[in-house]
Amino acid sequence: MSASGQGRRDRWVRFVPAGYSAVLALLIAGPLLGSGYLLLRDAVSTPRSYPTDSALGLGDAAPRAVPQDALLAVLSPVIDGGLIVKAILLVALWAAGYGAAVLARELVGAPVSAQLVATTVALWNPYVAERLLQGHWSLLAGYAALPWVALAAYRIRTGTGTGTGTGTGTGTGTGERIGRWAGLAGCLAAAGLTPTGALLAGITALSLAGRRQLAGVLALLIAASAPWLTATALSGAGSEPSDPAGIAAFAARGEPGLGTLGSLAGLGGIWNGDAVPDSRTTLLALIGTGLLLVIVATGLRSVVTDSADRDERYVRRALVVLAALAILLPALGATPWGMHVLEWLVAHVPGAGLLRDTQKYVALAMPAYALCAAAGCGVLARRFSTAPIDDARRSEAVGNGLSSDTHDDSALPSSSAGTPLPNLSPAVSRSVATVFITLLILPLLDLAWGVGGAIRPVHYPAGWQQVAEQTDGPGDIAVLPGGMFRKFRYSGKAPVLDPAPRMLPRDVLQTGELPVRGRTVSGEGARARAVETVLLQGGSAQELAEHGVGWVLVERGTPGPLGESKTTLAQLDPVYSDADLALYRVPGATEQRDRSSTHRSLVIAAHALWVALLVGGPLIATITRRARRKR
What we know:
By secondary structure, the protein is α+β, with helices and mostly antiparallel strands. The chain has helices at residues 3-29, 68-75, 81-108, 112-123, 126-134, 137-159, 174-191, 195-208, 214-224, 226-235, 245-249, 259-265, 284-305, 310-333, 336-348, 366-383, 391-399, 426-441, 448-453, 463-470, 500-503, 526-536, 541-546, 565-569, 597-630; strands spanning 37-40, 43-44, 457-458, 476-480, 485-486, 496-497, 514-516, 519-521, 549-555, 573-577, 581-585. β10 and β11 (581-585) form a beta hairpin.
């Protein structure tokens, strides 16, 4: 084959992991391709949402859904909000798988077949299944960013000449350095769709980039987190301690035959026992976890030791250490003394509530697991291959993806310097990879097609649109029944977060109280609790007006406390009513509680900075990469 033909083949081979990742993403989230909206537990998508104070993070509750809610509020008047959420989720799943493949290619020189194993580890695992069932679509965007953040941090570490090893980027031009930093900025912004995602990406970047880059990485992380940091500072909600009861409620959970540590090591163990695939409630959890850990273990030694480059070796080892801590610390957090420490933290340290769902941080193990699984393919392939590779075989190996960028010997895997390369034929590599992929998929087969059909689009009654059009006057909206979670006739058996705050153009008061494992975890919505008390005790319309309430929405057909609210509703003006919803107007003057224009301007500016990183970072990185290729 000619050099030009070989080059074209190499470029096409690189698209195989991207295509495979897309296939897995569609296989997982396929039901969402139909019409309708994602409405499952914490996931709420609506046709349109609005830039209310709550969407900007200036409500009474901590800004946990910032900047995702503001992004949907801005885009949904142009593009249906349900389509936006579906697109983000599908892209996130694809990016997680493809990012794992690229990370394995660059850090361990994985051939295409081994890259597919890395993709499978990143996508076909209990963490993805459980977070989908819990409705954490935006957290999965942060999860998807982790391999790309690791790559960007690695390139910055080696590309600025700070390493003392043989980093390939020493002497890199200014334009390329800017491009690498821009790539990291875009990755951090993508992860920063939620505060937890930003924290996950920040931990990864700060762990890998190197001491000399810490200030720059920290500055980018703060900029990418500007929306929720600014909202927290201005609203004051995040400065209040969290309810210590949330620690035990959200502690990681052991699965059959595994215990807490084993469940976390298998990338499972979410606190909500109802948000797990059926297979994880049987001995398949033990089998699947055992197979995953064996596959990861086959490549662990290779990842930790087989690298002559000091920077590359550091990044590999740092990812492995990060994975170990991401498993051990949540396991310790589920012990009595670990919960005691966390309870003290959330009760005394503002913002420590981000730590209560410790199983979220198991996401940090995914990049190392993907690397080890990909490297394990090479380890087993070498055991089945004993003959030194000749020039013809070397050319064939390069054509099948063993070399990522060059055709020299240094890009091909070897057991040690100067040792003849084993004949890693495509057939052997593909066979090992096929076995690995099969062993990873079969124990969790019910992840396919919306985790066994649990994730499917729903259709809202037309009354929601009518209510949204009617709430055109001043005042916030109170809702009945009490509580934040609903069970509608159209939403399925699982409880869902009330869609009203995202569906309606006025702020909807929510207490933030979460029913978890038979207990109630208090939220930060003090005014919402006071308003709910007025309604349930049959208070007067005047009391509602004094709390800034201009509307009361009754969501019919869903369980929840109503108390003596009929007494209060009788004093209000009915505006709209159907089988599902009833809207009432609070008569008289309503006390205005809108945030100051200065606060809104500052938060909007913080969101604009985040958008600039999200869009500008990848754009600059792409421009600089193309310029380098032309040179």
